[in-house]
What we know:
By secondary structure, this protein is mostly beta strands. The protein has one helix and 29 strands.
Amino acid sequence: MNPRIFIFALVTISLFSCKKKEEDKPETNTTPTDTGYLYGKFVVNEGNFLSNNASISYIGDQGLINDVYQAVNGVELGDVLQSFTIIGDNGYAVLNNSQKIVVVDLKSMQHITSISGLDYPRYMVDGGNGMAYISNGSGSGQVFMMNLTDHSLAGSIDVGKGPEKMLRDGDLIYVCNSGGWELDASVSVIDINTNTVINTISVGDRPMDLVRDHTGDIWVLCSGNDSWMTGGETMASLHRINVGSLSVESAVVIGSAGVHPKNMASNSTGTVIYYELNGVRSVTLSNEEPVESTFINEAVGSIDVDPVSGDVWTSDVSDYVNPSIITQRRANGEVVATYSAGIISSGVVFH
Length: 351
């Protein structure tokens, strides 16, 4: 059977039955030495809306340090940390309700500058051409270009409604148009040589996340419309985009009515894809026929995979009051450690 044919084996068994004792990692206030905060894991803590308590937790060899930006700079980061991107030795904290991007020196975690001029910034990717690309907008959307030398905005590109996560593949950037507070079901493809949209690909309702597999194709997780949205409830789905034709090669409906997953990730080789669905599902692609299995049964708030170790990091579903719990697992499901991070953790960034 052609390995590029998208077929799911709906396997419902759990991958692992053995139980491992969780190891809780202590919090420390010790400042890292030598390379500072340059290397490690960074937990994105959104914080509560209008509470100005967004934060970054740092996990290094010495343990976890919560609210590291405030500890170094003496001020809070801002309101609702949507994402955190590392480019070179700098970190870029995208704060959607503060309508700014805070730039920090990762070695010291000291503030470098703040970038304004964005009304609803979401995510950022490195274009590899001296520019960063920032998704922006809750309705009609744009992707802003930012000069990485002087951090000035250098124009924008119109895309679909509510642009969210993006993925750069060579000279192309794929943008999930989720609709924001409206409706959309498309992926915009930007050519960074011309900074124009060269194709708009129709996918499922509310595309939220995307990854690249071992063949180079792009998988898109579409959340489906919630019942409160105009147009009513629709089902979640997975779509695979052929990067040669820039078209959907296969698609499958997932989950059940009322289930709206938002997060997915892949290992560094693209041979295993993880996506949220009443827990976390894994799809192994290295075999002739893709095999889907249950990775964990617990509901999660985010999924990220360490590109070096292959460990899978998840956050719990926040109650908006207590610190989020971050869990680190091996690729076989074994729990390595748990960490108590900030309020509403929504991802882990590796460097």
